[in-house]
Amino acid sequence: MSHPAYYGLLMCGLLVTACRQPPAPEVMAAVQAEQQPEQESWQVDYRLSLEGRPRARLLAAHLIREESSESTYVVLEGTAQEPVRGWIFTSAGDSAATLQARRIVYYENRRRFEAEGAVELVTREGRRLLTERLRWLEDRQRLYAPGFVRILAPDEQIEGFELDADEQLRAYRLRRVTGHVVLREESDTE
Domain 38-181: which topology? Predict the structure, then answer.
C-alpha cells in the first residue's frame, strides 16, 4: 500500500471515530447507578449475630455492601495505618478470637468471611495464626487458609500450607509442615 493511500485510510478512520456521539445522559446515569454500591459507610462497627448471640464484630474504616441476584456481600476495608479489627464469638456467644486484616469480605448467603492481607487471628488461649488469606465458614465453625500459615503458641511454632482448623485452632491439619513442638511427659501417680 502506498503512503498517500495509507494516510488517507488513517484520516478516514480518525474522522469516523471522532464523529461518534457520546452516550445519552440516561444511559450514563443507568451505568453509574449499576456501579454504585447498595450501601457505603465510613468508620464502621459491623456486628453479626445468630439467634440473638453475637458471632462477629468488626471495626473498619470503610464498608461497601453489594447486592446481586446471586449473592449479597459486605466488603470491610482498613487503611494503611489501621487494619480491619474484629472479634469472633463461639456459637454460644463467648469470645473465641480476635482478628485483624487489611480487608474482610462477608458473603451473607453463604455465611462465609474471607480475610485478606496481613491476617492475624489470636484465640483466647493465646494461639496466633499468621497468613495472607483466611476463610471462616461461620456456619461450620471452620477456618481455612489456602496458602502459607504460621501458628505460634507457648508450646509450638508450626508452619505449613493449606490450613483446615476449628475456630479455636485446637485441632488443625496442614500440608508440608515444619516447626517445633514441646512435648510434656505425664507423671505416674501411683
Answer: lipopolysaccharide transport protein A fold (2.60.450)
- Write the pLDDT tens digit of every residue in 146-164: 999 999 988 889 999 999 9
DSSP state of 84: E
pLDDT in tens, 138-150: 878 899 999 999 9
> What gap in Å lies between CA 88 and CA 77, rounded to an integer?
17
By CB atoms closer than 10 A (0-12, 13-18, 19+), residue 44 is: middle
CA distance 17 to 35: 26
**How many degrees, rounded to 5, is the angle at CA 81 between CA 114 and CA 165?**
30
Note every long-range contact of 125-133, with CB atoms under 8 Å and residues 24 or more positions apart, other chains counting: 125/153, 125/168, 125/170, 126/153, 126/154, 127/151, 127/152, 127/153, 127/168, 127/169, 128/152, 128/153, 129/163, 129/165, 129/169, 131/163
Please name the helix (run of DSSP H) or strand (run of DSSP E) that holds residue 164, with its range, or none.
Answer: strand 156-166
The pTM for the full model equals: 0.73
Q: Is 54 exposed, middle or buried (0-12, 13-18, 19+ CB in 10 A)?
A: middle
